[in-house]
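DATA SHEET
Item: assembly model
Revision: 1
Owner: S.N.
Input lines:
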Amino acid sequence: MPNHHLTAAEIRDFRALAGMVIPASDTYRVPGADDELIFNDILNSLERDHDDIRRALAHLAALAGGAFADLDPQRRIEVAAAFRDASGAPLAALVRVVLLCYYRDDRVMRSLGLEPRAPFPKGHVVEQGDWSLLDPVRARPPMYRLVE
Amino acid sequence: MHDKVDVLIIGSGASGAAVAWSLAETRMRILCLEQGDWVKPTDYPSNGRDWEARLFSDFAVNPNRRARPTDYPINDDNSPIKVVNFNGVGGSTIMYTAHFPRLHPSDFKVRTLDGVADDWPIDYATLEPFFAENDRMMGVSGLAGDPAYPPKQPPMPPLPLGKSGARFGKAMNQLGWHWWPSDSTIATVDYEGRARCINLGHCTPGCAQGAKASTDITYWPHAIRAGVELRTRCRVREITIDEHGMASGVIYYDADGKEQFQAAEVVIVACNGVGTPRLMLNSVSAKFPNGIANSSGLVGKNLMFHPYALTYGYVDEPLDGNRGPPLCLWSQEFYETDPKRDFVRGYTFQFGRGVGAIMEAIVSSAAGRLPWGEDHHRVYRKLLNHRIGLSAICEDLPEEHNRVTLDPDLKDSSGIPAPKLEYTISANSRRMMEHGIARAREILTAAGAGNIAVESPILNGGWHLLGTARMGTDPGRSVVNEWGRCHDVKNLFIVDGSIWVTSGGVNPTSTIQALALYIADSIKQRLANLFD
């Protein structure tokens, strides 16, 4: 069962737009946000933003004068630019869910040099640093105001 | 109908837990009602691959977004700063960064020193032993010798500097400005049953390792072992009074939504600077038609937030990103009033390590730094883990028009009227924020950062909820006396941030808890004549 209530037309437009926001790249050897695995994750992650995303997609379709996915490439670029310029909460919600799902994909994370894992239980290493940097501050006299 | 208890505490967060633990030694029958649940370590986002995503869902910092069944809605439409809280055992210590500065001695005497607002009826010296006791109980890491404070001795060594901290330290030294490793309630060594920090890097929405001190794992185990009862999923609707005008108990809804009455000899409110006035304003009677203990008319007024001015930039080498606790240093260089500036009072700088991969993408996309299309990947790789930033935590002075009232329409899932905020940032605070942003630009430039950006105020930055039931000796100008007892109701106490007279310019949890311990101690000292 899908975890959303988008129509087939909305899904097509959404996927087309996601692929424009983050296209696949041969240079960095990463898929686009319209990749099947990533886009399914997106569709399953709408939850609190579901209604805003539907509003955003309705706005996109209005700007396109129909199905955004059916536009020719040049027209898509123009409509996507107008869509982004309009900003607002629905657009922010739509872009957020795209980014949320894209940047947790294993292939994308590995391309960025990140380990595709949860923080716990392995954690991370943070270097202790050079505490002698504090020496000039240690030498300062008390700087808080005295209160009688 | 339940058996009457000696002490009923409402809220199990920072202050409620501290007061429960402190009073437990009296062997009185003590009950705490908490509207939320226990949070298990396995519930925290850092257990899963979706750890960043959950900051936008069930661990969102804003209760309206999070919208768990245990949350209550807040109408914050008329506030440029939105509330951050958490409802559960531990309260908002579940959802805080564990940055743990104390108020300064001067913060208690702002009228005397700077001619603004009011002095507190207590001072730093009064709280000093309770600060130290709380540091031991919560487990504070830090470094003795900070020239910005009277001497103190954190029980654990400080958090690591890391790449970001070292870069900031060098920049501050170059400018000749104060900086110091932050006091933090993150365990840097194994401490009292808590495992040391392993740099999960996602501390705010709870620590899967248990290194971050939230009161569910610090005070509460001790309090419960000492006999305190903690009853969860109990949402208090109102405090009731008897024919003598004394608090007689509370009406609450249990986990099944069933209305219950709990009688008590003493009622202690610990619901934070929004939840407490909401509860008091909802507690209406013939004697208190405008809310319990509100003869001054000040319940809900003087809301203070601490406007945050965030400034950040990007350097040319990878730093710590989300690895490690997000806050590790502070600066008090601009904390005390300087008559040469165009504002009174001051602010703390808190230095951030960095943010995670997803947060970087979302914030940079919203700011227009991260393009759509082919160039997205190149630009993103220049941003990821290259961020360095700091926030000015600006002192908010009390103003009566900044307030919490009851929303006429909005209600929680139990049908209890929700709080409504009216809040504006004062001209003094705005000048302070601008000063902080200008200084932060200098610091970032000295640290080698470019592409500098500002978020001021931080929209979802209402962590600190203060001032809405202020402390004082004049019943006409305050809600509680100098040891937390309501002027109007002599068996009703308030122990949370509501009672703050002024806000200082620091994260408040350390001082909130020291105050709660001080009030508990005051109660213990006066048990024989508590209601006189």
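QC remark: The mean pLDDT of chain B is 97.
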